[in-house]
Amino acid sequence: MPWSNRKAWVFDMDGTLTHAVHDFTAIKRQLGLPTHQPILESLRAMTPARAEPIEKALADIEYEIAGEAEASPGCEALLQRLQEAGCRMGVLTRNTRRNALRTLEVSGLRSYFEDDWILGRDEAEPKPDPAGIHHLLEAWQIPARQAVMLGDAIFDLQAGRAAGVLTVYVDQEGTFEHRRWADYCVRTPEEVETLWAGVG
């Protein structure tokens, strides 16, 4: 299917729409969490009483980081092209919705996404669960075969695969450690715009 026929676009946020600035190892140490396991998975293994203060501290750390957000190279041009083409666009992040809104505002990308289509970890089961993608596609009434998931982490790609959508792996370093989960690998959103135009 031509890229121009992909009418639904779901974006990861940190490291995809914006430069990757989270030092997750440092955050885990600050929160007293094991460094070998993802943060949300560590919190899920705890009792609610133990997890609650850590979750609050995590949200505060992420909110501070959101204040430094910068858009990825070529990201705004891609979003502009998709918007002009009448595509539906949403954000699916393992961050909180509050922090997602701040990140998008600070990075200058807020105007491209409607409020209802920005989903955080409290609005949908966190990736790699595909629930957030399913929710957006059902709301938009667009089939999975016409949808794309862009992300920089294995959780993004696994969620996309589970939802049956095209997966695009954005790795600004170009190492593509998780390429087996991706249909396409790009270093920046700018390369996605090139694919959309049918060049290369």
UniProtKB/TrEMBL annotation:
Molecular function in Gene Ontology: hydrolase activity
Keyword annotations from UniProtKB, A to Z: Hydrolase
Pfam families: Hydrolase
Listed SUPFAM superfamilies: HAD-like (SSF56784)
InterPro entries for this protein: HAD-like_sf, HAD-SF_hydro_IA, HAD_sf
NCBIfam families per record: HAD-SF-IA-v1, HAD-SF-IA-v3
Protein name (record): HAD family hydrolase
Source organism per UniProt: Acanthopleuribacter pedis
